[in-house]
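Consider a typical record:
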Amino acid sequence: MTEEVPIPYTAVGVPLVEEVKFDGLKFKTVTWKVPEDVEYKGKIVYVHGFCEHSTVYTEFFDKLSQQGYEIFFFDQRGAGLTSPGELMGKTDEYHTFNDLDYMLKRALDSRENKEEKFFLGGHSMGGGIALNYAITGKYRDDIRAVFVSGPLVTLHPNTRPNIVVRKLLPVINALVPHLKIDSKLKYDYITSNEGWKNYIKAHDTKLIGTVRQFNDMFARGEKLLSKQHTSKYSPTIPLLLLHGTNDNINDIKSSEKFVSLLPASVEKEFVPVERGRHSLFIENEQIFNSVFEKVTQFLNAH
C-alpha cells in the first residue's frame, strides 16, 4: 500500500463542505468562513484550473479567510468530486459559464448586506474563465474586482501541442467530443515547492481531459488576444494579473499582451513574479508570501 502523502500545510480554520445540486449534477463546494474574531471584508468566488480541486488551495484559502475574506470554491463540471470517473473532463463552453452564473447568483442572493464586496479570482484555466467573465459575464456588474494567476491565454511553447494537433482539435471535437486524452503536463512545471509537488504527484497521477474541454479552453484563451473582445472588458472591474516568469505551462507573454489590449479606462496591474512557476499559490514560501501580500493588498484597496 502506498503511503499517504499529506499536504504541506496545517490549516487554522476548517472549511465547510457541501453539495449543491444544479443541472443534473451534485457540485462539491468548499467555503472558508471568516473567523468570528476577524473583521469581515468580503467574499471571493474562486475558479480553479484544469484538473484542480480544493485541497491544493488549503493554505491560500485558509490564510485569506484569516485576513477577513470568505472564499467560495466549487469543483467545476468535469472535475474533482463533482464529476468523478466517467464524468471526468465532460464539460463545454456553455456549461462552464452557465454553472459559474448559477454559483455567483446563489452567492449574491445569500448576502445579508447587499453592499457586501464581491470578488472573482481564478488560476490557469480558471483565470481565463474569470477574465472572460469580466468581459461578457452575466453578473459582472456585481463584481468589485478580479485577480488571476497564470491565466490560460495561450500555452507556453514548451507545453503547446504541435500545430497539426491544434488545428485538428475542432475537427476531433465535432466527431468525438468526449474522447479523453492525457494532457501530459510535467509536475516540475507546476511548482518548485517539493511538498506540494509530491502531494500532486501522489493524488493526481494523470491530468486527463476531453477533446471538447481542451478545444473550448484553448479557444476561450485565444479570444483574450482579440482587441474586439478585450475592448468589452468592464471599465468598473479592476484587475490584478500575476504570472510566474518561469511558467512553462501558460505563456506569460500572452498574459502581458492581454493586459496591453485592455481599454485605458480599466484599472489594471500586470505582475511578473520572478522565478515563479505555474501555480503561484502553492509555490515555495518566499514566492507564496510575496504573492499573497500582493493579492491581499489588492483586495484591501478595493
